[in-house]
Amino acid sequence: DPPKVNGDFYELSDTLTEEDRAVQLKVRNFMETEIKPIANEYWNKAHFPMHIIPLMAKLDICGLTYKGYGCAGRSSLLEGFIAMEMARIDSSISTFFGVHSGLAMGSIYLCGSEEQKQYWLPLMQRMEIIGAFGLTEPEVGSAAAGGLTTTCRKDGDNWVLNGQKKWIGNATFSDITIIWARNPEDNQVKGFIVRKDNPGFKAEKMEDKMALRTVQNAVITLTDCKVSEEDRLQNANSFKDTANVLRMTRAGVAWQAVGCGRGAYELALKYTLERKQFGRPIASFQLVQDLLVTMLGDLTAMQTMVYRLSQLQDKGDLQDEHASLAKVFCTLRMRSIVDHARELFGGNGILLEYDIARFVADAEAIYSYEGTKEINSLIVGRAITGESAFI
Ligand code: FAD
């Protein structure tokens, strides 16, 4: 029998409607023809391929699940498949896209006024404007819910922001960044649409990352950064509203982990079929097959889990703990899959030209961002025990 290199072993794509399947294949084709040939080069240079933005815009997939404002109102399931297709080839590109379409557009979609949505979302859907999302700070990562030190202060018709943000993806070139800041007056978190030409806004590229090198992460410094009341997200009144955005995007990160794992598994399987030792393809050895099957089992469990997760999301039943469990489980299994995949490449597994080294490195970032394993575990732990381990 011919080998089965397709990592969708239980044929979940077959359950998509013809229309959705066409979108999935359009994204796959884009990733394979436009991204795969340049992925290692840009990763190595730590540059972002700006020329792909208009090409991506043509795919017409930004804000895919949002209703109105130029967005298609399609299912979360389809959006999940798209995140997977992107990460299957390059997790940097899926991260760039997730920040723009999920975190930045999602903040406006969920927390913006009608006017804000009507103005910004169509521009962002067409990728004429690129967004970033600034929550994390140099001293505040996991504890963002209660501990933001960036402040906002009302000053007449404006707000004044002061503080620093760290790790903010896309922010070196984004047109707008959603900045989350605490108002010391009521101690609540508010969100602001901060434009890149604001004189109080400075974004500096973070150098020397060892993962997702194509993604441009920035340290942002806000110095008496004046933002008009018009650009305050009108329906972001507390961290609960921020958390609503994160619940949605965390589900997307779980799908990204599936994509990263799937790409690594498929690369490894192909390699073991081509690479010969002792006169035979290494795929013919029992120990190699055992590793491949372990990887496939993990991958299939991850795929079926996120599939159901998206069904819950599409029914409107997605809870924080559902998204957190999928994020924890899928990123843990992803880490194990890429590790086994690298092992199967032997020495070539640490050479960028064989792709797998990039997957191993990138998996580390996916594992830690959008809530670490510990934080997402504690969210699930709180839900199942009724006891909060957070202070
Ligand atoms: P810390 O919070 O300092 O955690 C360090 C360790 O302590 C972790 O293992 C953590 O789990 C553990 N820990 C902390 N508290 C507890 C506890 N109560 N119990 C048990 N263990 C605990 N942020 C943005 O706002 N926008 C972005 O676009 C963005 N992009 C990112 C891209 C990349 C590549 C990376 C790496 C990060 C990005 N982040 C972004 C930030 C990311 O969300 C944070 O890195 C993440 O939330 C963890 O915060 P931290 O790095 O400060 O780690």
TrEMBL record:
Segments traversing the membrane: none
InterPro entries cross-referenced by the UniProt entry: ACX4-like, Acyl-CoA_DH_CS, Acyl-CoA_Oxase/DH_mid-dom, Acyl-CoA_Oxase/DH_mid-dom_sf, AcylCo_DH-like_C, AcylCo_DH/oxidase_C, AcylCoA_DH/ox_N, AcylCoA_DH/ox_N_sf
Acyl-CoA dehydrogenase/oxidase C-terminal domain: which residues?
A: 244-384
Q: Which GO terms describe its biological process?
A: fatty acid beta-oxidation
SUPFAM superfamilies hit by this protein: Acyl-CoA dehydrogenase C-terminal domain-like, Acyl-CoA dehydrogenase NM domain-like
Q: Where is the Acyl-CoA oxidase/dehydrogenase middle domain?
A: 132-225
A Pfam family in this protein? Acyl-CoA_dh_N
* Record GO terms (molecular function): acyl-CoA dehydrogenase activity; flavin adenine dinucleotide binding
Which stretches make up the Acyl-CoA dehydrogenase/oxidase N-terminal domain? 17-128
Full protein name: Acyl-CoA dehydrogenase
Please give the organism.
Dyadobacter psychrotolerans
